[in-house]
Design a protein that fits this description.
CATH topology: Rossmann fold
Distance between the termini: 6 Å
GO molecular function, one term: methyltransferase activity
Structural class: alpha/beta
Order of helices and strands: HHEHEHEEHEHEE
CATH superfamily: Vaccinia Virus protein VP39
Keywords: Methyltransferase, Transferase
CATH architecture: 3-Layer(aba) Sandwich
Bound molecules: S-adenosylmethionine
CATH class: Alpha Beta
Radius of gyration: 16 Å
Organism: Actinoplanes awajinensis subsp. mycoplanecinus
InterPro entries: SAM-dependent_MTases_sf
GO biological process, one term: methylation
Low-confidence stretches: none
Length: 209
């Protein structure tokens, strides 16, 4: 990887930054999911989790965080360590693994998940890899699981294709948040077909930067 992803996270601290608005939109969707599943245990998978501030930020503000267990997979050691520190303060059972999140085997002990976070991935991999990853998501999911994903809408805007690939893979759209004056978008899709078992030995995507 050539990008300093730890430095990239500094943009979250800039006031009125688009990244902060995107984070708020992702957190809103996690909150909505938690509110809709009161009292049920929730298993979360976050691929390329960064420092985990989307999920962990929500859990830090919730009294029912103890019903959540999560696997966060992040390649960058500094970010994984930061996620681990934030997770340690929570009553949730959060495991942070520093590894390549594209390897299907990483998820063997964490499936099936009720909530899958694919944030900050689809803008950094090839279109073909986006499609491959979406087609594999039912392998991570419990019945009715929701997936929260992000993607910029710079031309050529891939989000219409992404939404179509989710539909083709057995998902219905729950939300698509795409403010006119910003370039980010946050999508949420719910699995409405039968999940598939995890296929081992697959590598779904490669970061291009
Ligand atoms: C755009 S950031 C998104 C971070 C976080 N999900 C967020 O939305 O704030 C992309 C993250 O993916 C991580 N990453 C890149 N390639 C990865 C890989 N193959 N496996 C795991 N993490 C990876 C980077 O280190 C970085 O933290």
């Amino acid at each position: 990887m050539s990008t300093d992803w730890s430095e990239w996270h500094d943009a979250y601290a800039r006031p009125n930054a688009a990244l902060g608005n995107r984070l708020a939109a992702v957190r809103d969707q996690i909150e909505r999911y938690m509110d809709a599943t009161t009292s049920d245990p929730v298993r979360v998978i976050s691929a390329c989790a960064g420092d985990g501030r989307d999920l962990l930020g929500v859990l830090a503000g919730r009294k029912d965080a103890d019903r959540v267990s999560a696997l966060l997979v992040e390649y960058d050691a500094r970010l994984a360590a930061r996620a681990g520190e934030a997770a340690a303060a929570l009553p949730s059972a959060v495991e942070v693994v520093q590894a390549d999140a594209a390897h299907s085997d990483i998820y063997a002990h964490a499936v099936p998940a009720n909530l899958v976070l694919l944030c900050g991935i689809f803008g950094n991999i090839s279109d073909a890899d986006v499609r491959t990853t979406i087609e594999a998501v039912p392998e991570l999911c419990a019945p009715g699981a929701e997936v929260v994903w992000t993607r910029h809408r710079r031309e050529p805007d891939l989000t219409p294709s992404i939404r179509g690939w989710f539909a083709d893979s057995g998902f219905e759209e729950v939300a698509f948040v795409a403010p006119e004056d910003e370039l980010w978008s946050v999508g949420v899709h719910r699995l409405v077909t039968t999940p598939r078992p995890l296929e081992f030995g697959r590598h779904w995507f490669t970061f291009l930067r």
